[in-house]
Write a structure and sequence with these properties.
By secondary structure, the protein is of the alpha/beta class. It has 8 helices and 15 strands. It folds into 2 domains: 141 residues, Rossmann fold (3-Layer(aba) Sandwich), CATH 3.40.50; 141 residues, 3-Layer(aba) Sandwich (Rossmann fold). The chain is 28% helix and 28% strand. Strand 5, helix 2 and strand 6 form a beta-alpha-beta unit. The longest helix is centred in the N-terminal third of the chain and has 17 residues. The chain is elongated and about 60 Å long. It starts with a strand and ends with a helix.
Length: 299
Amino acid sequence: MKLISGSSNPDFAKNLSTRLGLETISIEISKFANGEKRIWIKDKIEGENIAFVQSFSDPTDENIMEFLLITDALERLGARHIHAIIPWMGYSLQDKSFRLGEPIAAKVVANLVSNSYVKRATLLDIHNSSVPGFFTIPTQNLSAISLFTEYVRQSFDLNEIVVASPDFGGLKRAHMFANELHTNLVNVDKHRDLSTGEVTAQSLQGGSVEGKIVVVFDDSILSGGTVLEASKLLKEKGAKEVHFLATHPVLTQGAREKLSHESIDSVVVANTIVQKDLPPKVTILDASELFANALKAWI
């Protein structure tokens, strides 16, 4: 097996190739004067199995189109099998239509990947566990729980830890995380204004956090509103420290300012999406190990 990377997350691809000892395929990615992507794979890959790394992150549409062009080029060069490694799947949060006339965007993206020359896909912590079912090729959805539990064990005294879910939707995920750490679980009851998107944390359910180190566990951080409101409520309820752990740092406009708030002691995310100029309190964990373990059987 050889590895090729798109332009969205080259460091992740480099870490993965190092962990697996894979040769990296040389590729040139540029643009024509009219803005269209230009792809040139320089190496011979006929008959090779290929691991292809590309996050569908901002600029999302451009990175998805780049993925499709590279896949086509790999097919034309005679690749035997393409295994798509997608650390962050853009559009995965649009997994249902709420109004007549809306698409199911996650299914559209899954169809694009499935109808290319890709034979298998591996994802990480998709918000809705039904999304891998949108693909018509074998698709595995990995969990980063082991990555974050190891971090918590090395960083904190487990006797002081309480795990919190930032909302009802993340309760199952947080419950699994708490079970791995053998700690108590509480839930933040939040309200989101559907017209403005503003988040308000209203109450805490499941027990006391007085004098505890609270670890809030979620799959992604978008605007940072949930992080900020949950941390403020937990501090009001007596939490000694509040640490927010999430796999995907999507971080839309204004998120960095919210993460810098004094009520948040630290934020820990994985390297599924390239982000620059992060606040000092943000720690980045390498999730390539999770994909390396999943890929070993195919090398």
